[in-house]
Every structure is written in structure tokens, then in C-alpha cells.
Design a protein that fits this description.
Layout: H1 3-11, H2 26-32, H3 37-42, H4 44-58, E1 79-81, E2 92-95, E3 120-123, E4 126-129
Antiparallel strand pairs: 1-2, 3-4
Helix pairs in contact: 2-4
């Protein structure tokens, strides 16, 4: 069965050919393809291609995804540190743009004006882009 067929079987209360397998493959996929973790987390095309290669190599069911747990700090002016060594697995916020409720008053609405033409920032399910091909 393909991953989608396996999921459909479970949802429709039929027996799949095997248990679905989902992984947390991000760092491994980046290294498998020879990418730094910073490149993996900042270049969506690299991120997705690396996960597809790992999925094809190992046969697990999970679809590729893009992003990290600590979203929000970077988009609104906080400081983010991207992984620089094998001991670090994901970006982390160094400075939160909002530390106390009064900080909300100084936040501007999110703007794409500061983005370079090749950058894209993802908020929820929408893609905001500044001149990137296919951007909205």
C-alpha cells in the first residue's frame, strides 16, 4: 500500500498492510543529503527534497513538512539562532519579540517589505513572499 492508501484504510476501519510509520527525520534528512541544518531550515526546496529522499530510502509514511516548533519569534523581530553543530537539532529563539503584554503595543503588523527577493516566510498555512517565483 502507498502511504495515502494506508491512511485511508485506517480511517475507513479496514486493515492496512502494516502499521503507519512517522518519523522526526529533519536533522537526519539534512545530513543524508549533505546540507547544513541552517540551509535545511531556511530553504524550503532543500528541506522538502531532503525529506522526500529520506522517505524513499527508508519507506516511511510521513509527508514532508517545513518549519520548526519555535515559529513566531523571527517573523516579528526576535533573534533566532540556527543550528551550527551536530549537537543542535533545530533553530531556537534567542530573543522573544514579546516578553510582557505591554510589548504587544510596539509590534507592527507583519510586513514583507524587509524580505529579499528569494526569501519566503511562512505563517500558518499561508506563504508571504517578496518577489519570489510563485509567491503570493
Amino acid at each position: 500500500m502507498k502511504p495515502s492508501e494506508r491512511l485511508e484504510a485506517v480511517v475507513t476501519k479496514r486493515r492496512p498492510d502494516r502499521v503507519q510509520v512517522a518519523t522526526f527525520v529533519r536533522g537526519y534528512a539534512a545530513r543524508l543529503c549533505g546540507f547544513s541544518l541552517k540551509t535545511f531550515y531556511t530553504d524550503m526546496e532543500v528541506c522538502v527534497k531532503a525529506q522526500i529522499l529520506a522517505q524513499e530510502l527508508h519507506g516511511y509514511d510521513q509527508s514532508p513538512s517545513f518549519g520548526w516548533v519555535d515559529w513566531g519569534g523571527w517573523e516579528f523581530g526576535g533573534g533566532v539562532r540556527f543550528p551550527e553543530s551536530d549537537e543542535e537539532g533545530a533553530p531556537r529563539t534567542l530573543m522573544h519579540p514579546v516578553e510582557r503584554p505591554s510589548d504587544l503595543e510596539r509590534l507592527d503588523s507583519f510586513s514583507c517589505q524587509h524580505l529579499q527577493p528569494s526569501e519566503t516566510v511562512f505563517l500558518g498555512q499561508r506563504s508571504y513572499s517578496s518577489g519570489a517565483p510563485g509567491g503570493r
